[in-house]
User: What shape does this take?
Amino acid sequence: MNSRFKVVAMGRVGALAINRFINYHPQISLATYEQTSKLFKSPTGNIAELLNGSDQQTTRQGIHIHDAVIFNKKFRKNFIKMNNIKVDHILHLVRNPMEQTLSWINHINASAISGIGGWREIPTSAKGFNERYSEHFNMMKPGLQCRTLYKNHRKVKIVDFPSLASSNIDQTMADIYNFLGVNNSYRSEKFHKSQNNYTRELLSKGIDFKLNNEVVEIKMAPVDLYFFPEENIKPWITIHDTHDIFKQCPSVPKIDGDLMFFPRSNAAHNRLSLRTRKMLHEDIRDIVSEILPVWAKNAEVIAQQIEAEKLRALSEEDCAFVTKMMKDDLDIFTRYHPEFKTLWGI
Assistant: This one.
């Protein structure tokens, strides 16, 4: 009999990693937070649909809740429906708010430098982060309030962010698999392969080039990090040349997976002439081998700038600000989970 579970996480707590790691297990299927969020915001969407897996090998079906919009009064009915979905287990990902704030600041800064995500103003402090991006600062609060999603559930496991580090990940995943009731001896070498959000985003940002005097827009993504391609877009080809990128980009953190190349949009692809499309399908490997060095050179410069401008620690003033802003949420969270007072130095 299939059992159901929820994963709840609210930004910069390892949500992408846990989604990948859990899905590596052959007995588990976990819908991504993008899927959950899309259905949640739809007037006719039913999140329970994501828990109806068709794979006979899968005995655990999960949904990933990652969007703070679920606490918006506008979606109150959907929240009640979602909260009433009966599941057997809940995984709740958390992170020390000081570390989470620092991670948000560095993420926004790196994204702005990379020209991805639509970030413009660059915060240099926790207060500045709150002033410029209050909706993201406030996302940390629902992260601690996810106890609301514990309704009628006794089997809840807290996953603290440091447990997802490479040195701890084998034991962490064994504990999670044991908690979900599947074979806890399963291991994957991919647990230990480093990944980097900015490398992935820079790849997917892609490159424009000319072919037959037509502008071709392509995106690139590592297969292992690309869960669900855009609707109706078919990759042209998958090739093994990520190592060539890293030869030319020593500053860019390594990511696993072969590279997949595909049009940036169906509309742009369909505007191309039949001749150009045919050349792309037949000769994409040769074309890409010429444009990758261009991408690599640009990525190398960006990677060095990100590292140089990374904030290493919050100031005492920042820590005091975060503590003040998060006080009520921390008080309630640690009332339920007192062990985190020591873990987080509260």
